[in-house]
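Honest question from a wet-lab person: if I give you the sequences of every part of a complex, can you actually get the arrangement of the whole thing, not just the pieces? Trying it with mine:
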Amino acid sequence: MTEHDVIDLKVAGRRSEADEPTSPVARFGVDEPLRLDAGVDLAPWQIAYQTYGELNADRSNAVLVCHALTGDQHVASLNPVTGKPGWWQSLVGPGLPIDTNRFFVVCANVIGGCMGTTGPASSDPATGRAYALDFPLVTIRDMVRAQAMLIDRLGIQSLFCVIGGSMGGMQVLQWAATYPERVFAAMPIATAARHSAQNIAFHEVGRQAVMADPDWRRGRYLDEGVRPRKGLAVARMGAHITYLSEPALHRKFGRTFQDRHAPTFSFDADFQIESYLRYQGMTFVERFDANSYLYVTRAMDYFDLAEEHGGVLARAFKGTPTRFCVMSFTSDWLFPTVESRALVHALNAGGGQVGFVEIESDKGHDAFLLEEPTLFAAARGFIDAAAAVRGLR
Amino acid sequence: MTEHDVIDLKVAGRRSEADEPTSPVARFGVDEPLRLDAGVDLAPWQIAYQTYGELNADRSNAVLVCHALTGDQHVASLNPVTGKPGWWQSLVGPGLPIDTNRFFVVCANVIGGCMGTTGPASSDPATGRAYALDFPLVTIRDMVRAQAMLIDRLGIQSLFCVIGGSMGGMQVLQWAATYPERVFAAMPIATAARHSAQNIAFHEVGRQAVMADPDWRRGRYLDEGVRPRKGLAVARMGAHITYLSEPALHRKFGRTFQDRHAPTFSFDADFQIESYLRYQGMTFVERFDANSYLYVTRAMDYFDLAEEHGGVLARAFKGTPTRFCVMSFTSDWLFPTVESRALVHALNAGGGQVGFVEIESDKGHDAFLLEEPTLFAAARGFIDAAAAVRGLR
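Yes, you can. This is the full assembly:
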C-alpha cells in the first residue's frame, strides 16, 4: 500500500465520519429543524457526541464540554481519526477535575463541524452530494441551539456545568446568556465575548489561503476527489503561530537549526520552527475538512455577545443565576486577559457570581489544552464548590 | 483596453524595472563580483539607487537610507511602479529631519530585490531568462556589501549617517558592525540584532503561501507568463497584520461592517478589516516580485549579528566609533522594545555612544513609516547634533 493509498483511505474515512460517525448521533427529522441565525431552518440534521460517566437519578450532574475551532467530541477518549488521546484527557476523566466518577460529561461536535454533526462535508439530502458552500453559515448561537436540542434529547433540563476554552468558551458564554436557567455553573477559559479585529484578520487570511488553492474547486473538492491540502496547511501554519507565545517559541525553538549546523542557503526548513510548522500544517489536513474550517472560523468572527443586547455586554448577563469562573493566561495574545477582565466586569455589573483566575504561563493561547497545574487546581476548586452547593456528591 | 491588459502592461513594466530600472544603476562586471555569504561570487551584477541633495566638497555629508522588506530606493520621490510618493517622504526632503538641503541622501534597492538591483527577477546572463530560484540566497550582510561597493563607486569613503527601519535597521546594524570606520552615525529603528523564532515563523507561512500557488511554477512563473498572485496576496495579508497593532486595528476597524449594516452570512468581506486586508494583498502583487519576497524574507530570517561574534552581540560593536540612536515603538510586537533594549545593552557593553528612544504609539511596527512627531523630532535632534560634531553646516 503506498502512502497515497493510505491518505485516500483516510479521506474516505473522514468523509464517512461526517455522515456516519463512530460516535453516538442524535438525528433530527424534517419536523425538528435547527433554526439558524442566517434565517434558515436546517432539516434534517444530526449531532454527534460522546459521553463519559453516568447521569444520576435526578439528572443534575451533567457537564457539557464545548470544543474549540478544530476540536471535536472526543474530549476524553481515543480519537478515531487521529488515533490520539482525547484533547482534554488531562482535565476530564476518573478522579480528574471534571471527574467522570461523579459527573455525566457530554461533548458534541459543533454544527458546521466535520466529525458527524451536520456541516459542509455532510451529504445534502437534496442532492446526495456534500453540502459544500450550499451549507448555510452558522454562528456560535447556532452551535449552542444545536447542543440544547441534544441536551433535551438526552432528557437533561439543567446542566450542572458548561466549560470550554477559546471558541468553546464563546459557547459557554452564549449558553449562559441564552439559557441562564439551564446553566448552574460556567467556566469560560481563554476566550472573549466578541472576536477582535485582529482575530478576524487572522481568520480571513486563513480562509483566503484555503480559497486560493485551486483544489478547493469553489468548495466542491469532495465531489471531485481532491482536497485543498496546501491552502489548508498554510492556513493552519499561520493560525498555529497565534496559539503560541513569542517566549514559548523562543524557548522551544529559538533560532535552532533542524538536523544541521549551518544554514543551507536554500528554502528548505533550515530552522526547527519551520519544520515544526510544516508538520503542523501537514497533519492538520489529514484530520480536518477545509470547508468546515471556513464555516467555523466565520462563526467565531461573527461572535459578539453584546451586539444582541444593544452593545451592552452586562445586559447579556443581567440577573444571571449562573456562577462563573473566568480564566485567562498571561501570555495569550489571541484572547488576552484584557478581554477576560471586560467579561468579568460585565458579569459583575449584571450581578453575577464571578471568580477570575489569570494564570501565569508562557505557553500562549494553547495553554488551556496543556498541562497547567494552576488551571487544573482552579477548575477542581470551582467545580467541587459548585457541586457542594448543588448537593452533588 | 481590458483590466487584464492593464495588468499585463504592469507586469511587463515590472519585468523591465528589474533589468532596466528608471533609477540610476551602478553596474559591476565579471571582474567586480559581489562575494555572497552563500559562497558564490555574483557577477555581473548591478545596483539601482536614488540620490537626493548634493555631495559636499569633502564628501562628508552622505546619508545612506536602508529600505525595509518590501521597500525600494524611491525613498523621497515618486515611485515609478506605483505612482505614489516616496515611502519616507515625511522624513527625507528639504527642511525635513534628513534635510536634502544639507545632506546627500542615497537609497539603493537591496540585492535580491526587484526594482533594478540584481535579484531573482533579473535576467541571468547565462540563460537570458530570469534567475528565479537559480539566484543564490542572500543575507543582510550581502545587502550591505553591495551598498558598500556602490558607496565606493560614488567616491564616498565615510557615511555621515546610516538610517533605516525594520529590515533597514538590520542593515544599519550590519553596516556599523562590518564597516565601523565608515559609519559616523547610525539610526536603527524598530529593528533587532536577530530575527526571532516568531518572526521566522510568520515569514515561513508567507513563503509557503507563495510556493503553494500553482502559478508559482517552482519559481519559473516569469518564463511562463503567469504570476502567483493569490499566494503572494495571502502572504502579504498575513504579514500586514504583523505590521499593525491590535489597538490600532481595533481603533481603525473594530468590528465595523463594510458597506452594510448586518452580516451577509457568507464569505464576502463583511468586515472592514477583511476588505482592507484583501486590498493590501491585491495591490502588493502589482508591485512586488514573488521570488524577491522569498529571498528577502529569507535574508531577514538568517540575520543574527551575534552569531558571527561567537554569540556575544557586544563583540560586534567592541570599541565602535559610531554614535547610535536606537528607536522602538511601544506597540510594535514584531520588533518589540525588548529587542532594542538588548541592542542598547550590547552597544553600551561595547563602549559605544548610544541614545535610546522608545516612542509611545499604538500604530505597531509600521509606526516608523507613519507621521510620528516624536520620531521626527528625535531624528532631527540626533542628526543635527551629530552633524555639529562632524562639522557639517
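Two things worth pointing out. Chain A touches chain B through 57 residues (CB under 8 Å). The domain at 9-197+307-390 of chain A is CATH 3.40.50.1820 (Rossmann fold).
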